[in-house]
Amino acid sequence: MGAGEITMDKRFWADFLARLRPQLTEWRRDFHQHPELGWTEYRTTYHIAQILKPLGFDITVGKDVLVSEERMGVPTEEELHTCEQRAVEEGVPEAWVEKMQGGHTGLVAQWDTGRPGPHFAFRFDIDALPILESQEDSHLPQQHGFRSRHEGEMHACGHDGHATIGLGLAHWIKRMKDELDGRFTLLFQPAEEGSRGAKAMVEKGWLDDVDYFLSGHIGIQSLPVGHVVATTSGFLATTKMNVLFHGTSAHAGFAPEQGKNALLAAAATALHLQGITRHSEGATRINVGTLEAGSGRNIIADFGKIQLETRGETTALNQYMVQEAQRIIQATARLYDVDVEIDIVGEGIGTESDQAWISVVEQACASSEHIQHVAPHIHAGGSEDVTYMMNRVQDQGGQATYMVFGTPLPAGHHHPQFDYDEDVLAVAVEALGRTVAYQLSTSEE
After folding, report:
1. Which of 27, 193, 295, 397 is the 20 to 30 A CA-CA neighbour of 11?
2. Residue 71, H or E segment
3. Quick one: which of 23, 39, 214 has its CA closest to 31?
């Protein structure tokens, strides 16, 4: 049975997914219990490798996965060391932690059929968010005992499911090894949150000869399970900045004139940034998400820190916002006579999915029992550093798309009660597998 026949065969997919579903649930819940923030995904990377190795994939980890200098927003050495020790305590062999030491997490799995054919690549993000997960009885992970064991860290955006979908697709590739042609590269990417990780993998060259690139996301909008979106557009380019104001402390009663108030500089900056003139050529965004300053009510604050982001409908529009933000930050620091440091800790660029994927996904999934509807397009309105990967493939003459896999959402993304219907995992595996097989069958004609 060839790849094209497998695409249409309902019995194959029914049998394959029936065996795979329990594993998908087990993997997802294990990842959910052990969330790890960007560049600290030590346990996650190790467990992905242990599941893939018996299948026969070529596995690359550590510094060979990415260009270390291209990483953005890497935690401090102390934070990394703490997470490395936690991984060892949770069963990751020290030799594996040493491979990833210093925040070199993530994994690339490759499969070469040995037969001529296109090169497919897929991206699955694996990091979590700094969110305290809900303990409400209505929250499914709390009900079923797989709530996060790492207080203050949570898979609140579905990346536990994305890693699981990647493992499911790997099992499909293994099952189809005699029918598939060409090569397959699966990138399990660290540090998507904050747009920090993709560029470092891209610069390693994994995507330089890729013909077809697919990635995607669980949810985004609350849709029924079985609804798949073929292409996504409207990714906003973005820049993430940490800004640190250095002032001079002084007694607020005895000698306030000796102080230089970094708290006021930070607070004034947060307000002035909202006044950036919007651009006529498209949508722009700015948000100050945190403000931390000072050490006591009777002390002139000698430090102030804000975390902010800009976004733009295009890379050029985002750059306009960045330049204006930096101008205001510097000017406000001068106004309050304090020093300031601006650190770029994440960036994402704009991109569009290739529209050719719409008919491919529609036709590939037309005979599925589990995929009830394929929507041609969705407008994202957010940011994703997968855009670096999509652009690299498109710049080299390949085609790229970003799919959405529908699921009801009891709470929105990045919420303490975020969750999804686990049936979406099997739907996503089938949608990706069918799309690959259909694309192969039509390429051979």
Report:
1. 27
2. none
3. 23
Token pair recorded at residue 7: 């695409």
The predicted pLDDT at position 234 comes to 81
445, 227 Cβ separation under 8 angstroms: no
Site of tokens 């403000």: 291
How many Cβ atoms from other residues are within 10 Å of residue 59's Cβ?
A: 16
Mean pLDDT for all residues in the chain: 95
For the CA atoms of 87, 88, 90, 91, what is the dihedral angle to 10 degrees? 120
Which residues make Cβ contacts (< 8 Å) with residue 114, sequence separation at least 6?
none
Q: Is-contact 123 135, C-beta < 8 A?
A: no
pLDDT tier at 222 (50, 70, 90 boundaries)? confident
Question: What is the pLDDT, as a whole number, of residue 337?
Answer: 98
Contact 198, 385 (CB under 8 A): yes
End-to-end CA distance of the chain: 16
What b/e string do you get for 223-248 counting C-beta neighbours within 10 Å, with b at 16 or more? bebbbbbbbbebbbbbbbbbbbbebe
Q: How far is residue 63's CA from residue 60's CA, in Å, rounded to a whole number?
A: 9
Confidence of residue 295 (pLDDT cuts 50, 70, 90): very high
Strand partners for 216? 403
CA-CA distances (angstroms) from residue 369 to 25, 70, 418? 20, 43, 27
Please determine, for residue 304, whether its predicted confidence score (pLDDT) is greater than 60: yes
User: Exposed/middle/buried for 409, CB within 10 Å: 0-12, 13-18, 19+?
Assistant: buried
Q: Buried b / exposed e across 327-358, counting CB within 10 Å, b at 16+?
A: ebbeebbeebebebeeeebbbbbbbbbbeebb
Residue in 275, 341, 339 with CA at minimum distance from that of residue 307: 341
Signed CA dihedral, 220, 223, 228, 231: sign only: negative
* CA angle in degrees (0–180, nearest 5) for 62-351-170: 45
Cα→Cα distances 250→87, 263, 294, 299, 341, Å? 43, 13, 11, 6, 21
Query: For the chain, what is the total number of helices (H) and then of strands (E)?
Result: 13, 12
pLDDT tens per residue, range 31-72: 999 999 999 999 999 999 999 999 999 999 999 999 999 999
Residue 313's SS3 state is: coil
